Amino acid sequence: MTPRPFTDTLRALGHGECLDQLTDGLHELVGAVEQTGRAGSITLTVQVKRGPGKAGTVIVTDDVALKLPKPEKRQTIMFVTNEHNLVTTDPRQQALTLTDATGPAPALVETSTTAATLKTA
Fold this sequence. Notes:
There is one protein chain. This protein is of the alpha+beta class. It contains three helices and four strands. The protein has helices spanning 6-12, 17-36, 112-120, and strands at 41-50, 58-67, 79-80, 86-87. The chain is elongated and about 105 Å long.
């Protein structure tokens, strides 16, 4: 007697719901692996136990477990002040005053060094 292919039994579990869960789970897993670059897994557990009454009857229970990869944990660089507080700017670094540069460009002033540099370029 030839054993029945496992895929036939899998298709019958839960009237096809188990196979649907595996299909959807694998699709979700592959997407998460592509997004995070980390590994994940999908596990099918099939439990078979004797059924009530006469021999030849079994109860089959399936469980699909999906373990999706976790994204990398967020990190923030912070600095410690003299008072032992955390801040996002380095308190030892001098502040840089910035000005708006969206106006017209300033006129170039030609000097002897600038003229010599422009002629050789």
